[in-house]
Amino acid sequence: MRQVEDAIKIVLDNIKVLGTERIPIQDSFGRVLGEDVNSSIYLPPWDNSAMDGYAVKWDDIKEAAKERSANLKITGDIRAGSMPDKPVGKGEAIRIMTGAPVPDGADTVVRVEDTKYEGDVVSIFRSGKKGENIRKRGENVKEGDMVLKKGTLIGSGQLGSLAMIGKPVVTVFRRPVVNVMSTGDELADFDEKLTENKIPNSNSYAVASQVIEAGGVPHVVGIARDTKESTREKIGQGLVGDMLIVSGGVSVGKYDFVKDILKEYGIDMKFWTVGIRPGHPIAFGIVGERPVFGLPGNPVSTMVTFEVFARPALMKMGGHTSYFRPTVDAVVEEEFHDRPGRTHYVRAIARYKDGKYFVRSTGTQGSGVLMSMAYANSFMVLPPDKEKVLVGEIVKVQLIGRPIEHD
Predict the structure, then answer these.
(1) Dist. CA 119–CA 107, nearest whole Å
(2) How far apart are CA 54 and CA 100, in angstroms?
């Protein structure tokens, strides 16, 4: 039985990054850059004003003060979006708006709050510093500068930066197409009538949502019934994308056919069990270059093992350079007893107060209690030799994306 860290390494060692595609930047939010992006322009393209005010020569105002103003003749106006048509001469000022180009001859902009004008004369009551309130050409980015590196996750700031340098189309890594299937005669999909021997198929839809959150494109193949023929058919349908995830049928029961069918398809199986709770029967293998995960059938086990093993694989396939959730140290708020032998991912609620994280379990930790995942914003990750966690003890907590309460 492999330990969690070894199993994760095996998974990532066998995952290949997908290719790239070109898309409009307005569609690139949440995608991963597949190219280095350099600027072809200077920004700003010229010295410009950081304030509404007056463009002046600093020598003309260096003695200005509240009790002794410097009085300059106003010779023009420059709006943002227009270019200066004359320089600033000695004893002159040009009214300028924020973002407008600084005219020749001016080396300082005086903000309007430090002035008063009457007719064509402006009185300036503060000298400030030479060069004040001027944004220099190329202050943001220069031609040839690296703007964003390959492997960068595109968020709002990154997308804005792409637009800023006039790049309408960008190269990104392709999103993995993930086929998701469940197994079991006891499962009913939405188009089936629930009977006394049926339960709703929650696993496919929970996993599909996890795939989306990890940057993939899910396709729900459906339910394989407890026959070799049905299992073979669904697995065959699932082996046409970039990854196949099977929920259930990977244990050693009489009707668990997934292992045998995957062998028929030539899978190179890397492991079948991992020392993790919940989710001991977790399978991983490769068909060609296509990863296949066999996740346990219990709902919580399915979601936890996806989070621990399949999510990092999807992140790597999609071009990410960081595959794992953030972890923090947290103070335990309740005593917790555990069975040693496996790394336990305890569904938990973390909160932040007075500069520290605090954590408690969501309650009952059974692998069928799906509400424990609905309430959780984190996992307490307890090592295999841990039998008891005491109040006030510090534990490792993995944050899983839901908001953290701040007191």
Answers:
(1) 24
(2) 11
User: pTM of this prediction?
Assistant: 0.86
On whether the CB atoms of residues 182 and 224 are closer than 8 A, the answer is: yes
Concatenated DSSP letters of 139-159: SSB-TT-EEE-TT-B--HHHH
Beta bridge partners of 382: 344
CB atoms within 10 A of CB 80: 13
**Nearest Cα residue to 156 out of 319, 317, 20, 31:** 31
Residue 29 is classified by DSSP as: T
- Cβ neighbours, 10 Å, residue 177: 16
Angle at 91 between CA 85 and CA 63, to 5 degrees: 130
Tokens, residue 370: 């799906």
* Contact yes or no for 141/43 (Cβ under 8 A): yes
How sure is the predictor about 252, in pLDDT bands with cuts at 50, 70 and 90?
low
User: Which residues sit opposite 37 in a β-bridge?
Assistant: 148
Condensed to tens digits (0 to 9), the pLDDT of residues 72-96 reads: 999 999 999 999 999 999 999 999 9
> Which H or E run contains 220?
strand 217-224
DSSP code for 101 = B
In order of start, what are the domains of the chain with their CATH numbers?
A: 4-16+175-317 (3.40.980.10), 20-43+140-173 (3.90.105.10), 48-135 (2.170.190.11), 327-406 (2.40.340.10)
